[in-house]
Fold:
Amino acid sequence: EADIYQTPRYLVIGTGKKITLECSQTMGHDKMYWYQQDPGMELHLIHYSYGVNSTEKGDLSSESTVSRIRTEHFPLTLESARPSHTSQYLCASRLWDRGELFFGSGTQLSVL
Amino acid sequence: KNQVEQSPQSLIILEGKNCTLQCNYTVSPFSNLRWYKQDTGRGPVSLTIMTFSENTKSNGRYTATLDADTKQSSLHITASQLSDSASYICVVGGNEKLTFGTGTRLTIIP
Structure:
């Protein structure tokens, strides 16, 4: 059982709102990731972190931002949500590059 | 461009039957190949991880094979159960990056 948690599980908000998706893990992993997944499509990496105070943009351009102030916490923020941001957001972590990647349960975001 | 292609896109089988899912990849450099199970609306869960030197790896009723020469992998599910209904995603790892397939949607019917 993976010890990585995402909240909320579902979020429905109006256009223009600021939101933060939470992700926490208790496994002491330095490497953490945010993926975006649309129905029936592959996961796309939008942000990653190799440790505290480290954040990088992924392969898919995203208007979101992330922060890594503590090892266990990797929140994702959208300053002004739009309908195009409607998607599932998955947080993941691993101990090293070739190690097992553990995923949270995801946040399903709907922007009206 | 690194790519992972899975087939079939979807599959429906009767409970108790076996099935095999395919994964072809063009990823360089190659480090490892992973199979994940993803239930609808949930995060993926790891089934197997194989490195270049491994040909077969099992996890209960799931058996993954890897042919690094032809860049092909398969996931065989034995004696399927209703709980096996999910998407199965093939993921190929390079030195740091992971390339994801779009998955095979498997439906088990009673």
In short: Chain B is about 0% helix and 60% strand. Chain B touches chain A through 24 residues (CB under 8 Å). The CA atoms of residues 16 and 92 of chain B lie 29 Å apart. Chain B has a mean pLDDT of 94.
